[in-house]
Amino acid sequence: xxxxxxxxxxxxxxxxxxxxxxxxxxxxxxxxxxxxxxxxxxxxxxxxxxxxxxxxxxxxxxxxxxxxxxxxxxxxxxxxxxxxxxxxxxxxxxxxxxxxxxxxxxxxxxxxxxxxxxxxxxxxxxxxxxxxxxxxxxxxxxxxxxxxxxxxxxxxxxxxxxxxxxxxxxxxxxxxxxxxxxxxxxxxxxxxxxxxxxxxxxxxxxxxxxxxxxxxxxxxxxxxxxxxxxxxxxxxxxxxxxxxxxxxxxxxxxxxxxxxxxxxxxxxxxxxxxxxxxxxxxxxxxxxxxxxxxxxxxxxxx
Length: 302
What we know:
Blueprint: H1 16-26, H2 32-44, H3 47-74, H4 92-123, H5 135-159, H6 163-168, H7 189-210, H8 215-232, H9 251-261, H10 272-276, H11 283-301
Helix pairs in contact: 1-2, 3-4, 3-8, 4-7, 5-7, 5-8
């Protein structure tokens, strides 16, 4: 019937395995992941703590787990030809310095946000129960969160490039003119909170308006957002990069140019805000602006 009920392991009811075994006997309609999920919350007896621990561990595993391949790639000369700024490979010292600040930010800034997310979202109707939502529900909600976060990120990021906001807050993130994966969350604590509000606030806004959100969807959204941010900071442009197939996707070339030029390309995931508001950066964008300017002057002279 299930994996554990016929096992030779003797699990007492108070243990996680014991709870899983007991729950599985009477919930055969649930899949193994749903049983594990329900057993975790039953074992913890504290939803806020259960969500907080699971969320933080998930964030750390996926953040550093996704960064690791880029660290390895940086050490393999074959991939240098795909490096956007080919002569700027991060050193081990730079990687370690970055890691220390990122960890400090995770424990002092992001951990409290993660812990407080559950009671806030639960208040507005977020679910933690089983069964899980359908794949379609997860997919369309994550897509909406991408659009909402990208909008928030564009305007907040653009604001941080003005005056004292840049000097006092955002300049830290621009320490690396040639970004690398680990540097995705290398930023001032204030910036982490402000830009992170788009990531966490989008699902909260959604559940406030609809009352329809499962925390599993939130987890999948966070993982997707982490992958997007880390890949955008990777510094690598491949023939198979996603923006070659989805032209409106930003990707590493979009954000790498932002770090190199220190201006323009403010959006996180998509290109449409920069395109529509003429804040695209790089040689191609500059060329198009010159052409539009010349065309405008010619029309004016006629």
